Amino acid sequence: MASLFKKKTVDDIIKEQTKELRGTQRQITRDRAALEKQEKQMEMEIKKMAKSGNREACKILAKQLVQLRKQKNRTYAVSSKVTSMSTQTKVMNSQMKMAGAMSTTAKTMQAVNKKMDPQKTLQTMQDFQKENMRMGMTEDMINDTLDEIFVESGDEEESQDIVNQVLDEIGIEISGKMVRAPAAGKSLPTASPKRKTQISDDEIERQLRALGVD
Asked: What is the pLDDT of residues 16-63, one digit of tens each?
């Protein structure tokens, strides 16, 4: 009894309208099927009258066939209109729901803003940032301490041995090159004795005799 006096909501109205539109669409489809059946029967009747030579009957049936086809085409237009109305109803329903959701969200945001203290929120964020930095520094100190504790004493000695080995290899290579290089004062070519800048008289006379001059 109470349901009879219950006020319908927008969703209830839209559901009823959608249901009616679906029923109308089905009825249009049935009407179109009936018209198509009549169209086929009329085409057969026209062919039958044409074979019998009854031209007057053919003309009358042909006019009826034209009217029937026009009526069938109108069912397509009506069906398209019904589909458009159903689509518009669904779109309007979606928009109304979106508007309702936005209204609810706005109210929620207003309630949150009333309860939220901006200064307190800012202080909380600053405290969080400070503690986060402190935690990072503490973690770095702990890691450095652990590294110092767990570093083995032999590691440094091993590193020094590697360095010494490399230096020794370099030294050996240099020594080898120095051995192959000519020793100072030994393999350098000796300076040629200084040539005489003056020719003796005997040398002059010898050259003159060779030329046949007395």
From this structure: 888 888 898 999 999 999 999 999 998 898 888 888 888 888 888 888
> Can you give the residue range of the structural domain that contains 140?
10-147+161-172
Q: Is there a domain that residue 2 lies in?
A: no
* Residues 6+ away with beta carbon under 8 Å from 13: none
Helix 10-52 and helix 55-115: axis angle, to 10°? Answer: 170
Q: How many domains does the chain have?
A: 1
> What's the length of the chain?
214
Please say whether the beta carbons of 90 and 21 come within 8 A. no
Count of alpha carbons within 13 angstroms of residue 100, beta-carbon side: 8
Using a cut of 0.85, tell me whether the model's pTM lies above it: no
Query: In this structure, is residue 111 part of a structural domain?
Result: yes
3-state helix, strand, coil in the chain (%, to 5): 85, 0, 15
